[in-house]
Amino acid sequence: MCGRYVATRSPQDLAGLFHVSRWNPEQLLAPSWNVAPTDDVWAVLERPDRGTGEVERQLRALRWGLVPSWAKSVDVGAKMINARMETVHEKPAYRRAFAKRRCLLPADGFYEWQAVPMEGRAKPRKQPYFISPEDGQPMAMAGLYEFWRDPDVADDDPAAWWTTCTIITTDATDAAGRVHPRMPLAIAPAHYDAWLDPTHQDPEELRTLLTTPADGHLNARAVSPAVNDVRNNGPHLLEDAPADPSGSGGPDT
């Protein structure tokens, strides 16, 4: 799964990296070293302009945790932060979004946790690892987005509509697989256009665009346990973890 990630690039940088033609400069998100479910996150997507009908590539802030259009409450999104690649094209909660509403979720990297036995303790401690491309380039995580109408809000209130998203995951490989059995999928730059195109709706063709981030050239590094608390944020979360008191080591050893 992917339950926490890092996204520190500015909207100006993202607009250039992903060839965005439209974004609202007044919409700001602070850099985050501890993006958590239900946070607002940057997403790249393509939508037709309401006036001209011309499809535009946009940068938008979406709420992480997909809420299907038929959901009774926005709260269900907290449990739908990931969609499995194996079933995303057929599950009722995701299949319409997979066909028509796909996005890219830019990230510097993501976190996963490994249970480390502690001598004299019944429960193991949770050691976080930061997993990122070896070359330091941004990841374009494969995502879906959906619109949800809050029935308790008046039609003329902008808060009546929520736009939410989820990250597509698969079996983990390489460095990520040594920490956790699942990992996010990504879209290679050469496939951005095909993935984002809302008229491209063939499920099997779309599934072939899903790839391992950085072609599997990933680095997994044990980092500060401070990331375990979603209230903590800042670049210090990526500092190397202190020496393992159990001596059991991990993927880096």
Automatic annotation (TrEMBL):
EC number: 3.4.-.-
Gene3D superfamilies per UniProt: SOS response associated peptidase-like
Assigned keywords, A-Z: Covalent protein-DNA linkage, DNA damage, DNA-binding, Hydrolase, Lyase, Protease
Superkingdom, natural source: Bacteria
A Pfam short name: SRAP
Ranges where the record places region Disordered: 220-253
Sequence similarity: Belongs to the SOS response-associated peptidase family.
Protein name according to UniProt: Abasic site processing protein
Organismal lineage: Bacteria, Bacillati, Actinomycetota, Actinomycetes, Kitasatosporales
